[in-house]
Amino acid sequence: MKKALFTNWTNEEFTGFWDGKDRNYPAGSSQELPDYLANHYAKHLTNRELLRTKEDGKTLVYKDGDKMTSPKFPEQIPLFMELFNKAYKEIDGEIIGDAKDDIDSLVGQFRNPESQEEPKFPINKKSK
Predict the structure, then answer these.
(1) pLDDT of res. 112
(2) What pLDDT does residue 1 have?
(3) Segment 14-73, tens digit of pLDDT
C-alpha cells in the first residue's frame, strides 16, 4: 500500500477517527500514514475548515463553504482541493504493509517527519 503525508496545517488541534479509534494531530504537525488514512483525515480536516465560522458564530470563513463539503467530484471544487492539498501529499516510491493490517501496527511503521526517530517497525520497501 502507498503512503502519504498528512499535515494539520491549521492553528487548531485535529482529531481524526478511523475504525473507532481517534488520533490527535497538534496544529502544524505532520505524519506519514497509509495513503487511504491520510486521504480520509485530509477530507475531514478540509470539511471542518469549510464549515468554520468567524467569531460571530454565524458567518462562514469560506463563503458557501457549507456547500463544498465532501463533494462527489472534488476536482471540480477548487477551494476544496486547495485546502485538501494542504493536508494530503502522496509519497512516491515505498509500499508498506497490507490493507488488512491493524491500523496501529501500520501507523507505527511510519516515522514522524518532525522527529529524528526511526519507525517502530521496519518499513517494507517494495517497488511499484
Answers:
(1) 55
(2) 79
(3) 999 999 999 999 999 999 999 999 999 999 999 999 999 999 999 999 999 999 999 999
**Residues of the domain holding 63:** 2-108
Give the C-alpha distances (Å, rounded to integers) separating 57 from 44, 51, 61, 69: 20, 11, 10, 18
Q: How far apart are CA 30 and CA 8, in angstroms?
A: 6
Distance of CA 40 to the CA centre of its chain: 6
pTM, 2 dp: 0.75
Residue 42's Cα: distance from chain center in Å? 3
| Strand pairing category for 14-18 and 2-7 | unpaired
Which helix (DSSP H) or strand (DSSP E) does residue 79 occupy? helix 78-87
Residue of 81, 84, 83, 110 lying closest to 96 (CA atoms):
110
86 neighbors 5 (Cβ within 8 angstroms)? no
Write out the E strands in 1-128: 2-7, 14-18, 21-25, 30-34, 88-95
> Based on the structure, what is the number of domains in the chain?
1
